[in-house]
Amino acid sequence: MQIKKITSLTVLVVFLNFSYAQRIIKNVNNNWHFILDEDKPSFSKENVDISSWKNLNIPHDWSFEKGVRTGGDQGQGGGYHDGGIGWYRKQFNVKKESLSNITYINFDGVYMNSKVWVNGNYLGKRPYGYISFRYDISKYLKPGKNTIAVRVDNSLEPSARWYHPCGIYAPVKLVEVNQTHFKPNSIFIKTPIISEEKAMVIIDAEINGKFKGLKYEVKLFSPDGKQLTNNCEKLKVSNPTYQLEIKSPELWNPETPRLYTAVTQILDGKKIIDKIETTFGFKTVEWKTDTGFWLNGKNVKLKGVCEHWEGGPVGGAWTKPMLRWKLQSLKDMGINAIRPSHNPTPPMFYDICDEIGLLVMDEIFDGWHKKAPQDYGKQAFDAWWKRDVKEWITRDRNHPSIFVWSLGNETHSDVAPEMVKFGKNLDPTRLFTSGAGNPEDMDIQGVNGGSETKSFIENNTLTKPFISTEAPHTWQTRGYYRTQTWWRDNELPGTFELPNLTDKEIFFYEGINPKDWRNRKQRFNSSYDNATVRVSARKYWEVMRDTPWHSGHFRWTGFDYYGEAGLVHGGLPFNLFMGGALDVAGFKKDLYYFYKSQWTQEPMIHMLPHWSHPRMKKGTIIPVWVYSNADEVELFLNGKSFGKDKPGTIWNEMQCEWMVPYQEGTIEAIAYIGGKEVKRTSFTTSKQPSKLNNTLKKLNSEDGFVANYILTSESLDKNDNFYPYGENKVYYNIQGDLEKISIENGNPIDPTSRTKTNYRSLFFGKSRLFLKEKEKAAKATIFTGVILGDKSLYTSNDITIYVGQISILKKANPSDLEIKYTVDGSNPEITGKSYKGAFKVSDGTTVKAIVKQNGEVVLKMSEKFGKTEGLFWGDEHSADMWIGRGVNISAEDGLLEGGAKADKKARRYKGTGFVRFDGNEGAITWYQENDGEQGDYSIRLRYMHNNEGKLHPMKLYVNDEYIRTLDFKPTGGWEKEWKFVPTIITLKAGANNIKLETTGQSGPFIDELFID
Predict the structure, then answer these.
(1) Which residue in 247, 715, 748, 895 could disulfide with 925, CB within 3.0 to 4.6 Å?
(2) Antiparallel, parallel or unpaired: β 359-363 and 337-340
């Protein structure tokens, strides 16, 4: 008998005799109606006119759909996305015979402050946006059509310190059961004894309804579906416990994630009243202070990543195929563990981790009090945490992937001991930790960031097991290189050394001209593993590998994610965080291959940087790195060997490295094991781009989710060599049974909408279109087009127009396409020339083009070329103005309250504007992450006013604690006469809020906060 896993979206068998129906789980993700920012109480009623509402499917994230907006409600932390209030409505049918049963509606995730009605009847609310919940709707149902209404309230923002979704972002189910049924989340499978010979399995359950005269049966099945044992007895209590024994258990671990199945059934004679299938696994976990983490009797290093739910090309609206792609991408890098930060995820996340073999540090909260201005900690924690913790632990505790519970992140409160005790009553089989929250009350000490310092590692005296819950913090921009070390907030005391790779910088390109930076953080980050807070990724792997008490780490992060754009990257135009080993499009960075070289066994090789440097002087010495897990690697340039190097175990020898004088041609690396070649890789210097390479990947449908597709576009030259600076817009026209999810390129400063436009620029030569099938999809075609050339016309002024036609689902005959273009800005439909081949343009030219199929326009394209277009190309002195400067945070980027308003009507302000009060009262709150230890810091406030005799006193608060009142003397002008007010404040390690508030006498113009 083959037992298949029952998931949350599978419709189970239904017997004709409904008085003995098994549970029926129905996917109700499709055909919802939605309206945003129109909030009427009447929307909750049974009958509402929804003719103007949008029709859509769940999962849905309206904030991601709206996109980035200057002044976006979520602020820098949320990547300048919006909040708002949204309503959802859906009709569903109920058969008359179902009314004698119990029906639950189950939500896997709604962010946040949801309220639910059925047929106009109010069911309840749920404040937390990252928790599952359900309601018994049985008494409100009627035969025929029924209506669900959901109100989602994100009007209070920012409600998180990173980008959060808005809406019903995870699956919704209707669960129909007999009056007598297993209580939701009541099945608890424990394995207290595991040996090679046998394992004990204890299964607890709790039954709702009458059970007299009924039987309770449990069957256990092996990973290959073979029935191993069963037990069936008359029910005597509503909370039965069975103990069973399995011989020679196969253990669950990341390498062989073997899953068993427990089938629990309530029987009336031979008829099944209720049935649940639960997967579980056998594993042993030990934590030792001196030797760290032990899994199944083996000392194992936790090679993990932190991962926000929102870190990818869908916002928070993950489908299961897309989520599997994301998690498998991380698994392929070599990780064995993951920390969903800083909240639980929908159940399908843990299902996938069970299946592919990822240990999960399951985390419940960011803070136990306010951290973001309007977060759950402020809005609801005190009243709701017990209900949310109970749902979280009882829902997730059977997953073998979960090996430890984490109660919070960078937070501290007297509630911690109570939370630990409460959690252990729900699951006494696992230990508890936190990300640097109340470590004295936890079983395991978790440390965020601080464990990256030399002083912590060398001077630490542990009293309990330890794990780096966030480390290391390093950044890379895919395709971007610098040989000079970059520290986020200047080099900190006690850090490990990270020397420059060359005496002087050799790369001089940027996303933004340094003269236009808002602060010193607004540069891209080098892919040489030399842009960091405290330590390189290589050094920290060496530290955790060679330190016995170090259990391992969860690097910050796996994927890049939207939000926290001001923290590291200085704010707009940056709208995302580049700490991942993969970017938000899922493109692998060089860092990904470093980890793969250390954490995987299959032979691999990866070389950096690319070998196209058109503005580099011939003979410039370039550090060439190769990541490989082979015995040795040999490097060749134009056929000449530069010798062999062996990957080492010391941090700065983990990469094979050669110092190579630059000249155009082919650079090639060959990896050897036992003297035999196993892998090779190469780059050939590329000329201007003239082709587009499109590749399609299908992500198969599963659990009620339709198939998804990823279309990758890359710029090539005429000889099919990858062009690494490609930045031309790729246009798409989707015809047939596919829908666009988003277009993503990984560029942190690209303002183009990911969801609304039909184009996105290549970023360092790459971009991706993400798609999903429509229901009953049969055929589809995608037209792609791009006007290709060097944006700045430096390499060449030759321009090529490329058009492609891709058939999906059902192969279609390629059709003849007609291309017309202009170079004078005019409409190519009217004055366009027929495209016959490459043509030349001059500085400042805008090329426009149309593509026709059978006389119908399928693509309209435009691209501008000129010396100031695209990437900024400078020299070694371009960024000199930022040397030695501290951190400056624009006032207009802070949280503005009351009469504080952003403005631009002045001169000599920094950034994009300043804040004015105009005689009103208000406040500005800045967010600052302190990478070092708690200590005193000098700050300066840049301000201006010309009110003679007035000091405009303002109160200064740090982390909600009053510090002092500051006076702002007249500067002599209201237009350009800026001055500073200095003071000293104490910042704690980690997140800090700095607030400046008027005191009844309004305030001056405030431009920036400097932290020196």
Answers:
(1) 895
(2) parallel
H/E element holding 830?
Answer: helix 828-831
Q: How far from 531 is each of 66, 688, 740, 881, 951, CA to CA, in Å?
A: 32, 29, 35, 19, 42
For helices 381-396 and 416-426, the axis angle rounded to 10 degrees is 30
What distance lies between CA 383 and its chain's CA centroid?
A: 29
How many Å apart are CA 140 and CA 161, to the nearest integer? Answer: 39
Handedness of CA 530, 533, 537, 543 (dihedral sign): positive
CA angle centred on 614, ends 612 and 618, rounded to 5°: 95
Residue numbers annotated as active site: 410
Q: Which amino acid is at 617?
A: K
Q: What is the CA radius of gyration of the chain?
A: 30
CA distance 988 to 971: 32
Q: What's CA 781's distance to the chain center, in Å?
A: 30
The two tokens of residue 94 are 């109920």
C-beta separation of 138 from 376 below 8 A: no
Q: Cβ(59)–Cβ(169) under 8 Å?
A: yes
Distance set, CA 1 to CA 214, 227, 232, 409, 744 (Å): 26, 8, 19, 45, 44
User: Which contacts (CB < 8 Å, 24+ apart) does range 185-193 have?
Assistant: 185/391, 185/394, 185/395, 186/239, 186/394, 187/262, 187/264, 187/276, 187/278, 187/398, 188/394, 188/397, 188/398, 188/427, 189/262, 189/278, 189/280, 189/398, 190/429, 191/280, 191/282, 191/283, 192/429
Distance (Å, whole) CA 90 – CA 704: 18
CB within 8 Å of 214: residues ≥ 6 apart = 180, 234, 235, 266, 267, 268, 273
- What is the Cα–Cα distance from 156 to 623, expressed in whole angstroms? 49
CB 796 within 8 A of CB 865: no
Q: How far apart are CA 96 and CA 90, in angstroms?
A: 19
797 or 521: which leads in pLDDT? 797
Sign of CA dihedral 364, 369, 375, 379: positive
**Dihedral, CA of residue 637, residue 638, residue 642 and residue 645, to nearest 10:** 60
Q: How far apart are the C-alpha atoms of 910 and 299, rounded to whole Å?
A: 53
From CA 641, how far away is CA 624, in angstroms rounded? Answer: 13
Give me 690's structure tokens. 């003239």
Residue 961 reports pLDDT greater than 90: yes
The pLDDT tens digits of the residues spanning 20-31 come to 568 999 999 999
> DSSP per residue over 219-260, as a string?
EEE-TTS-EEEEEEEE--SSS-EEEEEEESPPBB-SSSB--E
- DSSP class per residue in 560-623: -EE--HHHHH-STT--EE--SSB-TT-PBPHHHHHHHHHH--S--EEEES-S--TTSPTT-EEE
Q: 749 with 575: CB under 8 angstroms?
A: yes
Residues 6+ apart with CB under 8 A from 269: none
CA distances from 78 to 69, 165, 315, 686 (A): 11, 9, 11, 38
Four-CA torsion 722, 724, 725, 728, nearest 10 degrees: 40
**What is the distance between the alpha carbons of residues 996 and 958, in angstroms, rounded to a whole number?**
9
> 927 versus 885: which is more confidently predicted?
927
660 contacts 635 by C-beta, under 8 angstroms: yes
CA–centroid distance for 712 within its chain? 20
Task: Look at the pTM and tell me if it is higher than 0.85.
Answer: yes
Could you give the 3-state DSSP secondary structure of residue 417?
helix
What DSSP state is assigned to residue 705? B
Q: How far apart are CA 845 and CA 559, in angstroms?
A: 37
Residue 14's pLDDT is 32
**Pairwise CA distance, residues 693 & 82, whole Å:** 35
CA–CA gap between residue 78 and residue 75 (Å, rounded): 5
Contacts of 776 (CB under 8 A, 6+ apart): 737
Are 926 and 937 within 8 A, CB to CB? no
